[in-house]
Structure formats: structure tokens, C-alpha cells
Specification:
It contains ten helices and four strands, in the order ααβαβααβαβαααα. The chain has about 325 residues and is an alpha+beta fold. It folds into two domains: about 180 residues, no CATH class; about 100 residues, Alpha-Beta Plaits (2-Layer Sandwich), CATH 3.30.70. A four-stranded antiparallel beta sheet has the order 2-3-1-4.
């Protein structure tokens, strides 16, 4: 009995393997045939690929631009200092002890203390109004601590507010200055760019799907007689659907490849002007970089998925209406 069962199991395994092999070969043949059909209609196919490429390259370019803006925001945050003004009556030794304690904070990257005499020299050098201070009996400038937050909190408003609050606790601190408004505006700008990219990407993706639905529908109409014959000899809707789905998949994939090329060309076109602009602001940031390997794979997957979705919707809508009479 057990021998019979084991023999039956061995006999079904090769059959299942042959079934999987035949299924894979069929898909490979259909994929090749679909690509061949695309090549037989070069003008229509190139137009479709161009539309998909343009629609995919626009959000990809916006994505790269958003990444550059975020890099700029991080660099600007690191170069923005907190100014701490001490009381004019504060003892110099007490000021130095307090700033020494602050420099050991984990969220403080660097700290420099500007004493009244140094502050006066800088004021005279940069303002040209040194003669005005000469009219005063005493130096009116206080000790000033210039603090650069660490990179880990440079773009974190809550952490920066906490640091400013701790710096303000001392009785000898007269005022702490840090402009949070620009940081909030920058966050709003980055949020706007991300939302805009999502909206544009969704609208263009929907446009790709609708265009593919129309193109696949035309292909179905052009192959109506062929589909009728296939169904007459026993072909199922699944059998007829498969090459059309592969056509949409190929168009989406080729459109994604063209989108990668267009995105790289756009990066090359604007890279030099962006470098010049960033250099004029003395920002040590790399200009817009091309999509990396993972981002390129994601773009190709999205474009291929859109092509497949458009073909699937078109087939589901129009294929069932074609039946032999």
C-alpha cells in the first residue's frame, strides 16, 4: 500500500514540474510575441513610450529637486547660530564658567564667547561707526555666546526650543535670540513640495492609465477577427488577455527606461547652474544628483505597473464584448 502511494507521489511530481515548465515557456513566448508586435508598430509604440516617459520623468525630477532642497535646509540649519546675550552686570568669570558648561551639552556642536572688547572691535570693523562708541564713557556691548546646535537637532524645532529654554534659565542671561519662523517656513515649503509631487505623480499616473486603456482598446478592435477565431477554437479570455497584458507591461517598462534617460538629461542640464547658485551662497552641497539604483528600480516598477494596470482595465472592459456569433 505504501509502495503504491510513494509511486503515485513520484509520478505526480514530474507532471507538476512539466506543468510549471510549460507555463513558464508559454509566458516567455507570449512576452516575446508582445514585444515583436510593439516593434511592428514603431510610430504608435514610440508615441506611447514618449508619453509614459514624460509623465514619469516629471515627478522623478521633482523628487530630485525636493531632495536637493532638503539638503540645503539641513545645511542652512547647521549654519544658523543661537545668540545668547548676557547681562551687562554679569561677572566675566561667571560667564566663562557658564559657557563652559553649555559647551558640554550633547546638543551643542560648538560655542564661541565674544567678550565686550572683541564685540566692539567687530562692530567698528563691520559698521564703520567706531567713532560713535568713542563718545561713550563705557563699552555698551555685553558678552555674547554664539552657539551652533548639533546636526542631530538642527532641523528639529522642538529640540531647538528645548535648548533655547535651557540657555535662558540662568539669571545672568539677558536674552536668547533664535529665529524659529524661517525654520517653520522651510518645513512648510518642503511639505508643499512633497504634496505637490504626490499630486502631480498621481495625476500623471492616472493619465498614463487612461491613455493605455484607449491604446489597448484600439489594439483589441484591430485584432477583433483574430480574437474571434481564437475563441472559436476554444481559446479562453485568459489566453487572449495574456499578450495584451504583456503589451501594456512592455510599454510601461520601456517608458520607464526612457524616463530615466530624460531625468538624467534634466540633471545634466540644470546641474551646472545649480552648482553656481549654491556656490554663490557658500553652501557646500552637491547639486541635483541622478537617481540611484534603488530609485531607478522603483521608477521602472511604477511605470511597468501603470502599463499593466492600464492594459488590465482595458481588457476587462472590452474583451468580454467580443464573442463568436
Amino acid at each position: 500500500m505504501s509502495k503504491a502511494r510513494s509511486g503515485s507521489s513520484r509520478s505526480t511530481r514530474p507532471g507538476f514540474a512539466r506543468l510549471i515548465t510549460a507555463w513558464g515557456r508559454n509566458h516567455l513566448v507570449v512576452a516575446r510575441e508582445s514585444l515583436r508586435r510593439i516593434r511592428k508598430a514603431p510610430l504608435q509604440s514610440l508615441l506611447m513610450i514618449a508619453v509614459i516617459a514624460i509623465a514619469c520623468s516629471l515627478p522623478a525630477s521633482l523628487y530630485l529637486l525636493a531632495g536637493t532642497v532638503k539638503s540645503i535646509s539641513g545645511d542652512v540649519s547647521r549654519t544658523t547660530d543661537i545668540q545668547v546675550f548676557f547681562s551687562l552686570t554679569a561677572d566675566q568669570e561667571e560667564v566663562e564658567q557658564l559657557t563652559q558648561q553649555w559647551s558640554e551639552f550633547t546638543d551643542v556642536e560648538s560655542l564661541s564667547l565674544i567678550d565686550p572688547e572683541t564685540g566692539r572691535s567687530e562692530f567698528e570693523a563691520f559698521s564703520g561707526l567706531g567713532s560713535v562708541l568713542d563718545l561713550l564713557e563705557e563699552n555698551p556691548l555685553p558678552n555674547v555666546a554664539r552657539i551652533t546646535p548639533s546636526e542631530s537637532i538642527a532641523s528639529n524645532r522642538l529640540a531647538l526650543e528645548n535648548l533655547v529654554s535651557r540657555l535662558s534659565e540662568s539669571a545672568i542671561v539677558d536674552e536668547v535670540q533664535f529665529d524659529f519662523a524661517w525654520l517653520e517656513r522651510l518645513d512648510n515649503l518642503l511639505t508643499l513640495i512633497d504634496r505637490l509631487n504626490l499630486v502631480i505623480g498621481f495625476m500623471l499616473g492616472l493619465g498614463i492609465v487612461l491613455i493605455l486603456i484607449n491604446s489597448i482598446r484600439l489594439m483589441i478592435d484591430n485584432r477583433r477577427d483574430e480574437i474571434v477565431i481564437v475563441k472559436l477554437v476554444g481559446g479562453t479570455n485568459e489566453f487572449v488577455r495574456r499578450p495584451l497584458l504583456y503589451t501594456g507591461l512592455w510599454l510601461g517598462f520601456l517608458g520607464g527606461l526612457a524616463a530615466l534617460l530624460l531625468t538624467d538629461l534634466a540633471v545634466l542640464a540644470v546641474g551646472s547652474p545649480v552648482n553656481i547658485l549654491l556656490g554663490s551662497y557658500e553652501l557646500d552641497i552637491t547639486a541635483i544628483a541622478p537617481l540611484n539604483a534603488l530609485e531607478s528600480i522603483v521608477l521602472l516598477s511604477l511605470s511597468s505597473g501603470l502599463g499593466l494596470a492600464g492594459a488590465w482595465l482595458a481588457v476587462a472592459q472590452h474583451l468580454n464584448s467580443i464573442e463568436p456569433r
